[in-house]
Amino acid sequence: MATTSKITPSSPRLATLLTDVERGNIKIPVFQREFIWSDEQILSLLDSIYRGYPVGSLLLWSTKEVLKHERNVGGFVLPETPEDYPVNYILDGQQRLTTLYGVFHSGDRTTDAELADRFNICYVPEDDEFVHYKVAAAKKKIFLRDILDTAKLLSQLPAFSQEEAKNIALVTERFKDYEFPVVTIKERTNKEVCSVFQRINSSGTPLSNIELLAAWTWSDQFDLRREIELLLDTLADKGYEQIDQSLLMRMLASITINSIDSDDLVDVKPGILIDGMSVLKSAIFSAVDFLEGQLKIRNVIFLPFPIMLIPITRLYSLIPKPDSDQLQQLRKWFWHCALTQRYKAGTNRLVMEDLQLIETIKDGNKPFDFASFAVSDDLFSKSWRINSTAAKAALCLMAQGRPRSLLTGNEVDLGTVLSSYNAREFHHIYPKGYLATIGVGFHEANIIANICFLSSSDNKSISDENPASYFGQIPSADKRQILESSFIPVAAADGAMPFKDFVNMRIMLLAEKANQLVRNGSL
Fold this sequence. Notes:
Blueprint: E1 7-10, H1 14-22, E2 26-29, H2 39-50, E3 58-63, E4 70-71, E5 87-92, H3 94-104, H4 113-118, E6 121-124, E7 129-132, H5 133-136, E8 142-143, H6 144-147, H7 150-156, H8 162-177, E9 182-186, H9 190-199, H10 209-217, H11 224-237, H12 245-257, H13 270-295, H14 309-318, H15 324-339, H16 347-361, H17 389-399, H18 414-420, E10 426-428, H19 432-437, H20 442-445, E11 451-453, H21 456-462, H22 467-470, H23 479-485, H24 499-520
Helix pairs in contact: 11-13, 12-13, 12-14, 13-14, 14-16, 15-24
């Protein structure tokens, strides 16, 4: 491949590698994780190098790309590099490189005295082992930070026996001559580097492009990772904990570069990303308010397709305060998308098509007028599975009737039902147990058209009772309104209608309501 020359393997000696770090040629960017290794891991790495064992390679990125903040290595102060000076940023191997630099510079000026103390390792020649200096206590020892400094080393050797000095010389030779495998990425685009970065999994935790983006946009006032975390926490408090980092990053891409591929963000200028994040925070809360206020949806888990949030958020990024006509267009789009299962296949392409149409709304266009469109009855004859996209679309539809629980007549608390997504809050109008006694099989009984909202207490009370019996318990004064709120045909008010006839009639009623939503945006 033509690009293979842009990935260069090398095997510098450890002393050379540490010198490059000391000169500021190798830096740990802000997107890398803090030092997390244990004392045992520190000692194990040193012992492996001493014994000539492989310890894994380092992955570096050689670039003039400016990452606005780089940590010093292990708290040790490193020199600044000149502007436009190529720097090798470490993408993988941070824990190993930090350990080695810390051990051999534990006496240097530091901003983290506690960590520097952990790196203060010595070699005890009598026992031929590496230990923390406090463990060595009164034993004769030499600090590892001294063995690569010839002057310091020679001044201390007379204190040891000839045999001990030989052991120290062997340790010194093995560390100085140890060849560390290094792979350096050069002349790759930001997106290529991001792709490589995402595939690294040496620690068991995949790294994401948000880490690189955080480094490119970091300042004392802005940390993209922190902004995303705070936004996710706030959304979770509002009952939208199902929104994840990946979805937020796709929203950010739609707002900043008219894309839904978050990998494309790596080529966006930092200032645009920072501004886009500010717009996203406002737009996503408006989107949540739209779902709750306009559509009575209290949790993203009820969306047939969570990716539907991207077009909604995009509209609010373009039109922070949409007027009634613009909101009607958004509602029409929502119902068309949900009830036709539009994003069932070819999702990315269709989302991009919808985003282009969404943009025209701000200019007064009405791209989602579907006067001649008809929702298929098939949606409501599908099997009832609580997590299916068809079931979620139907539940969103049923929520629009402000359903009232059948036995009490009280309005179902959608704030509870639509936030917990609890199966006990949904009821088979003709209970499966009852239908089984009259020869109706499970699959015939368990369809969406046989489902309604119900409080868990009413659901428990009804259980498998004959609808002809429990329908008589519906408060007579409000019976019509209670049935209509759940889109249950009033013609079936006595519960005695044959199940097949009831299902066919309810499918027709649900389809009628569905088409009304697509045409008008509301009932």
